[in-house]
From TrEMBL, chain B:
Belongs to the bacterial solute-binding protein 1 family. The lineage of its organism: Bacteria, Bacillati, Actinomycetota, Actinomycetes, Streptosporangiales. Gene3D superfamilies: Periplasmic binding protein-like II. One of its GO terms (molecular function) is maltose binding. Residues 1-23 form the signal peptide. GO terms for cellular component: ATP-binding cassette (ABC) transporter complex, substrate-binding subunit-containing. The keyword Lipid biosynthesis does not apply. PROSITE patterns: PROKAR_LIPOPROTEIN. One of its GO terms (biological process) is maltodextrin transmembrane transport. This is Extracellular solute-binding protein. SUPFAM superfamilies: Periplasmic binding protein-like II (SSF53850). The keyword Kinase does not apply. Keywords: Signal, Transport.
Length: 289, 429
């Protein structure tokens, strides 16, 4: 009974749009006028029409790289910061706030600010690099296909690193001190204690963060749009599924509604499917006290 | 159990009341309008910065038509197309709407959202066919809007910097590159070229490459299926354009549209290849900036020997098929095809009116219009190959980005455009 309001809202704002998108994707559209039923025709069109047929696997690959990069950089740094703050409680609240502050800024603004900072013509980043003698390091960061995606990963990590840090910090606080003390008494090094005692007990937190990161990385749109525009930056180096959907829906042709709905359903099926598998896999590896 | 069911009913009731409250009310303008009743025509558009100017322009119409009020309702440019598509679906939407041109107009034509103007607006017969192309439905060849502005593409230059370095607008390609060299030697970036905002790339390709492929003549052959993007002239036009990249400044790969504008207005760069619409933005950024325009002379080995001026129709005004005041809306649209509207538009908005024989008061706009009228060249990817999906403009934006960054050859870039267009384009015989 208590769930009813939440269920109603969930139904209205999640289930209804989802079912609507699925339904829309089954028809051909002429602008905003629904034309004939085409079944899975829009799905076929999206998967076979050039250049979408080539852009989908490329964008998907960029999402995968973005996810792997974010896991490696954002979440590792998040864990590192959590451990540091856990060990040195002085100034803990202050640093918690500082690291979480970029959370409060819209990704669009973050993207815009970073594109100004990294501008080769006027940006302070290259200016500083040149001033300290690192002339060869001063590059058009968002203009070169090789650096654009790594920059996206770093800027995204800059904004969201506070999230995994807070979750890890809470999880670290939940580990009984006795376990670490027992390990120390048995002669385990700090490194060994971390990997053999703490980390296995952090697995539930790792699982939650991995699934959240996966969903976030596969739904990314605003930040990458602000950094590289709707085409996904230089030579499409930052093109991701979210941008592809945007282009199909808002820069598409007459049948934009049909094709973009089909694409949205495919993205949803991919993110939902992998999230469920990932969650099950990680749950099995969890260690309970 | 009983209690639970009652709660469920109560919750559903509340939800229903909430949803009903959110439902749109009956259209105000749907009420029968008496002769004495004032008509308000809503004109939707994407130019938030032009509201004051449109108010002045429409005041002229209102004064001549007592009982009619015209209201310009602007939306954010990037969201306008979606809002308009939805708005045109019911009577609460616009009576008259500012319409995008060429391919971007087609979804509205396909949805039957607009009133065809053939036979309704006789003034359109005075408009050149190339101008009407911007407001035509590709499928039925009918005209759906009165074109309001022509945009032309040029190299905009800083007169003060040109004078300082003893440079005049070039008459030949050699003169132009000599001027670029002279500026580069004096540590001035010759060309503030946009690279990361890929929509600017096809514009720059037209500015520098039009003479190489041949402009209007080549377009005619393309439309007839006798020439392709992958043929030598068009491929060479990409190489001609990219040949100027050594004058685009250091690390041009990261130069965004706003960077390029700032490089030009700050005097770090002497020229900005772009649309005539930039003049207003440049004057706003620095009112003391002395500006001039020129077009790129024929490149070595070009298909034509004269200088070409690329241009296109920016948009048009059309009537919603759902407007409850169709007669009044069409009357306003007829007025928009008149010289009176054209002159007011040109004066208030500092743009080239699409109405024939309206001379802009601004000397640079007048120069642009004279040059375009004498030697017009089409904006091929945007205007003529944008009626299907994917558009040549989108394809060119993507492939030219890879091309200027050295990730593909000119042939590969051209193939990307042709391969995409081949899926829907049918030549007209």
């Amino acid at each position: 009974m208590f769930c009813l309001p939440a269920l109603a809202l969930y139904g209205l704002f999640v289930v209804v749009p989802l079912v609507t998108a699925f339904y829309y994707g089954l028809f051909r559209w002429e602008g905003i006028r629904q034309a004939e039923f085409v079944g899975l025709g829009n799905y076929g069109e999206v998967l076979t029409r050039y250049p979408l047929s080539e852009e989908i696997p490329t964008a998907l690959w960029h999402n995968v790289l973005f996810f792997v990069g974010t896991m490696a950089i954002q979440n590792t740094i998040g864990l590192g910061l959590a451990v540091l703050l856990y060990r040195n409680p002085r100034g803990k609240r202050f640093f918690q706030t500082v690291f979480s502050l970029p959370y409060l800024i819209s990704p669009l603004i973050v993207g815009y600010i970073w594109s100004l900072l990294l501008s080769p013509a006027f940006g302070p980043v290259n200016f500083i690099l040149r001033t300290v003698g690192l002339e060869s390091w001063a590059r058009p960061w968002l203009g070169e296909p090789d650096t654009a995606l790594p920059v996206l990963i770093l800027v995204n990590a800059w904004q969201w690193v506070g999230g995994p840090m807070l979750i890890f910090l809470a999880a670290l606080g939940g580990i009984p001190r006795e376990l670490e003390e027992a390990a120390a008494m048995d002669g385990a090094s700090a490194f060994r204690t971390f990997w053999s005692v703490r980390f296995p007990l952090l697995m539930p937190a790792v699982g939650v963060i991995t699934v959240l990161t996966f969903i976030g990385c596969f739904n990314i749109f605003d930040l990458v749009y602000a950094l590289g525009g709707s085409d996904g930056g230089p030579g499409g180096a930052m093109d991701v599924l979210g941008l592809l959907y945007y282009r199909t829906a808002f820069e598409g042709g007459t049948n934009a509604i049909g094709e973009s709905s089909a694409l949205a359903m495919m993205i949803f099926a991919c993110v939902f499917g992998v999230s469920v598998v990932l969650e099950r896999f990680l749950r099995r590896r969890e260690v309970t006290l | 159990m009983f209690r639970t069911r009652r709660n469920v009913v109560a919750a559903l009731g509340l939800l229903t009341i909430g949803l009903t409250a959110c439902a749109p009310s009956a259209p105000e303008s749907g009420a029968p309008s008496g002769a004495a009743q004032e008509i308000t025509l809503d004109v939707w558009g994407w130019r938030q910065e032009d509201v004051a100017a449109y108010e002045k322009i429409f005041k002229i119409y209102e004064d001549a038509h007592p009982g009619v009020k015209v209201k310009y309702v602007p939306y954010k440019s990037t969201e306008y197309d979606t809002i308009l598509r939805t708005g045109l679906a019911d009577a609460n939407g616009p009576d008259v709407a500012q319409l995008r041109s060429y391919g971007l107009l087609q979804p509205l034509v396909a949805a039957g959202s607009l009133v065809p103007l053939d036979g309704e607006v006789k003034e359109l017969s005075a408009f050149p066919e190339t101008v009407l192309d911007g407001a035509r439905g590709v499928s039925d060849k009918r005209v759906y809007g009165v074109p309001f502005a022509i945009q032309t593409l040029h190299v905009i230059y800083n007169k003060t910097l040109f004078d300082k370095h003893g440079i005049a607008p070039p008459a030949t390609w050699q003169e132009m590159t000599a001027a670029f060299d002279k500026l580069a030697a004096a540590d001035v970036i010759p060309l503030a070229a946009t690279v990361t905002d890929t929509w600017m790339l096809p514009i720059q390709q037209e500015i520098f490459g039009a003479t190489t492929y041949g402009g209007q003549d080549y377009l005619k052959r393309m439309l007839a299926g006798e020439a392709k993007f992958t043929d030598r002239p068009w491929v060479d036009s990409l190489t001609t354009w990219k040949g100027t990249s050594k004058y685009w400044g250091p690390q041009f790969a990261g130069t965004s549209y706003t960077d390029a504008q700032a490089l030009f207005t700050s005097g770090k760069a002497a020229m900005f290849p772009g649309g005539i619409w930039e003049l207003a933005a440049f004057a706003k950024a620095d009112p003391h900036l002395q500006l001039g325009i020129f077009n790129v002379p024929a490149a070595p080995g070009a298909a034509v020997t004269k200088t070409l001026v690329p241009g296109f129709v920016d948009g048009s005004f059309g009537a919603s098929a759902k407007t409850p005041d169709k007669a009044a809306a069409l009357d306003l649209i007829r007025w928009m095809a008149s010289a009176e509207f054209g002159q007011a538009f040109s004066k208030e908005l500092r743009q080239i009116s699409a109405v024939p024989d309206v001379a802009p008061a601004d000397p640079l706009l007048a120069q642009a219009l004279t040059a375009y009228t004498a030697d017009p060249s089409p904006y091929v990817t945007y205007a003529y190959f944008s009626g299907g999906t994917p558009t040549a403009w989108d394809l060119a934006s993507e492939s030219l980005s890879k091309f200027v960054l050295g990730r593909s050859t000119a042939q590969e870039a051209a193939k990307h455009v042709q391969q995409g267009v081949d899926q829907w384009f049918k030549p007209t015989q």
